[in-house]
Amino acid sequence: MKKEHTVPPRQLPAHASLTRRTLLAFPAALLAPAWLHAQPSTLDPAPRTPSKGPRGQIVVGVSQEPTVFNPLMPRIEVDQGVWFALFNPLWRAEPDGSFVPELAAEVPSLENGGISADGLLWRIRLRKGVKWHDGAEFTAEDVKYTLELLNNPSFKAYTRQGHSFVKDITVVGPHELTWKMSKAFAPYLALLTWTFMVPKHVLGAASDPNIAPFNSAPIGTGPFRWGKRTAGQGVTLEANKDYFGDGPHVERVIFNYVPDSNVLYTQFKTGQIDYIGYYGVAAQYVKDAMSLRDRKVERVKSAQVESIVMNFGKPIFQDKAVRRALYTGMNKKAIIDSVYYGLPLETESFTPRFSWAFNANLPKHAFDPAAGNSMLEEAGWIKGPDGIRAKGGLRLDFTVATVSGNPQREQVLQLVQQDWKKLGVAMTIKTMPAAVVFGDYYTKSQFDCLLLSSTYGTGADPDPTQRFSSSAIPAQGGSGLNYYQYKNAEVDRLLVIAQTTFKQAERKEAYQKIQSLMREDLAILPICTPTPVEGTKAKLVGYQSNPCVASNSWNIGSWRWEV
Fold first, then answer.
1. Distance between CA atoms of 451 and 427, rounded to whole angstroms?
2. pLDDT on residue 52
C-alpha cells in the first residue's frame, strides 16, 4: 500500500458511483468482473508502525529463474514479480479488482474527465515528485515513450494487443498527457495495470532497445533498485530510499532460484527462504507446511490453468481427431488425485472459475481410451507393426516438454505417456531448465507440446486476445503470446466484439461463446485450475495474494519484518 494521498479526493475507484450512463459508456465501470465489485477493505493488511528505515532483507524462493528485466519484452510469470519491485505501472490492480493510482495521480474515468463517454479520448494526470532510480524526474515524456516503444514494430514487445489502438499521444505538460484510441478497447485499463513505465532518457538513448544495457541492469521508479543477477542463482535488489510510496521497509530483496521443488520446500521449512511463492509448496508437502510453527501458510486463489498446449504449426495437431483422442484418452482425475493430492479442480476452460466470464456449461471431460482409439481409427490413423499410429506419412510421435526440477510435472507426463501409449501414440518426455523452455523454444513456437500453467486473461479482465488471437502469433509476424499458433476466425470476431463493447452482459456472452468454441476445438488440453499453497515466515507482514497479477510479490515494497 502507498503513503497518504495515494488516492486523490476526487478520484473515483473503478467500482464506485456507477450511473446508468457510466454503465453504458465508461470502460472502468465494466472492466472489473462481478466477483470483484466488492468494496475494498479499509484495513491495511500490513499495520503501519513507525519506521526507522529499511531493516533486514527478504529472501523470495522461486522455482523458475527470472531472466527478463525489461518489463516490455516477452516474459514468463515469475519475471513479473521482479518487475513489481523495480517498476511501477500507471495504476495497479488490488486483490478485489479495483484500480489504485501509482505513477498516475488518479485512475482516469468518465466522472473525473479522464476518459470520454465513447472511450476514445484519454487524459492522464501524473503524480509529481517521482524519481527514476538514477535521480532523473519521471514525466509524461516517459509514458509517451513507453507506449510508442510498445508499438514500434522493430521492438520485441511482449504484446501490442490493445496498445496498438493508442494514437496521437500528446504531452500537455510534464505531468499530463492525452491520447486517442482508434477504437474502443474495454480491457485497456486492466492491461495498463501490467504495463510498467520505462525511462526515455535511458532506454531511448540506446541504439537498439532490444539489446540495450538497460535490459540487464534496469532503472525503474519502484521500491527497489537493481543490485545484481547471478545466472542460475537469482537476483538481488536494493532498497530505493527515495521511493515515492510506502516503503521499502527492508534493505534488500533476494529472488532465490531453486529449481527443485523438494529443495525449495526444504529451504522454506528450515528458514533459508522467507516467502515461498509462484507454484509455492509442492502438493505432497502441504499437510506438513500447514503444521509448521512460525509460518503463515495459505491456499491462494489463482487465475492460472494447467494444461497441455499444442503447437498448431505442427501438422499432427492440426487434425481435430488427434486432439479429441488425446483429450479423451487422458485420465485427468488420476493426475489430480495421485499427483496433486486432490487439491486442484478439474476445468474445461482457460478462464478462471471465479471470473464473471467463466462458462460453467462446457462439456465435461470423460476418460475413455476405447473412444479415443475409435476416433483415431475413423480418422485414418492406423497402427503400424510397432503399435504406433500413422496417416499420410505422419506418425503420432511427438515430444511433450516441461520445466525440469518439478517432480510433480514429471509424474503428470509419465501418467499421460502411459495413457497415450494405449492410443498408439509415441510420446517422448523432455525436461529443460525454465530459462530454456521459456526462451526461443516457447516464444518462437519450436515445441511440439508443453505442460505448463498459464494465465490467459488480462489482469482483472478476462480478455484472452493476447493468447488466442490470430494476430498475436509471434512466429507468424504478430505481436502477442499466441505461441500455440492457434487460429479461429470466429474466435477472432468474438474477441473484437468483447473488446469494443462496455456492456458487461454483451462481453460475457462473447467470452462464453469463445470458451465453447475453444472447448470444441481443444485449442489447449485443460487439466485443472491449480490451488497454490504459499507461505511466509510469521513475522513477515504485508503479503497479500492477488489473483489479478501473476506474482504475489506484487506489493513487496510494503512488506516488513514485525518488530
1. 13
2. 60
For cell 499466441, what's the residue?
482
Euclidean distance between CA atoms 190 and 462, whole angstroms? 10
**Is there a domain that residue 431 lies in?**
yes
H-run or E-run covering 507 = helix 504-521
Helices (H), 379-464: 407-421, 434-436, 442-443
pLDDT at 16 over 90: no
pLDDT, average across residues 538-556: 93
Q: Is the pLDDT of residue 321 over 60?
A: yes
Other C-beta atoms closer than 10 Å to the C-beta of 363 total 9
Helix (H, G, I), strand (E, B) or coil at 435: helix
The confidence band for 7, taking pLDDT boundaries of 50, 70 and 90, is very low
| pLDDT tens, position by position, 511-529 | 999 999 999 999 999 999 9
Q: Which three cell numbers stand for residue 214?
A: 538497460
Rg (CA), the chain: 23
Strands 91-93 and 57-62: unpaired
Share of the chain above pLDDT 90, in %: 78
CB of 42 closer than 8 Å to CB of 242 = no
Q: What is the pLDDT of residues 88-99, one digit of tens each?
A: 999 999 998 899
Per the listing, cell 503463515 goes with: 296
Residue 408 has what DSSP assignment? H
Nearest to 323 by CA among 530, 528, 519: 519
The CATH number of residue 488's host domain is 3.10.105.10
Least confident of 13-22, 78-87, 408-417: 13-22
| Residue 332 belongs to some domain of the structure | yes
Distance CA 179, CA 185 (A): 13
- 174 prior amide bond cis, ω within 30: no
Cα-Cα-Cα-Cα torsion 319, 322, 328, 333, nearest 10 degrees, comes to -100
Domain contains 361: yes
State yes or no: pLDDT of 220 exceeds 50: yes
∠ CA 181-183-188 to the nearest 5 degrees? Answer: 65
- Write out the residue range of the structural domain in which residue 338 sits: 304-529
Total domain count, the chain? 1
Alpha helix segments (H runs only) across 92-212: 140-150, 188-192, 200-203
| DSSP strands (E only) in 373-508 | 382-383, 389-391, 394-395, 397-403, 426-432, 449-455
Instruction: Give the least confident one: 3-7, 86-90, 321-325, 374-378.
Output: 3-7
549, 93 Cβ separation under 8 angstroms = yes
Helix (H, G, I), strand (E, B) or coil at 291: coil
Tell whether 195 is covered by a domain: no
Q: How does pLDDT run across 364-385, given as a tens digit for each residue?
A: 999 999 999 999 999 999 999 9
* 82's grid cell: 521482479
Other beta carbons within 10 angstroms of residue 536's beta carbon come to: 23
Distance separating alpha carbons of residues 107 and 96, to the nearest angstrom: 16
Q: pTM to 2 decimals?
A: 0.78
Residues 412-425 as b/e (b if ≥16 CB within 10 A, e otherwise) read: bbebbeebbeebbb
Half-sphere exposure of 257 (CA within 13 A, CB side): 21
Amino acid 14: pLDDT: 33
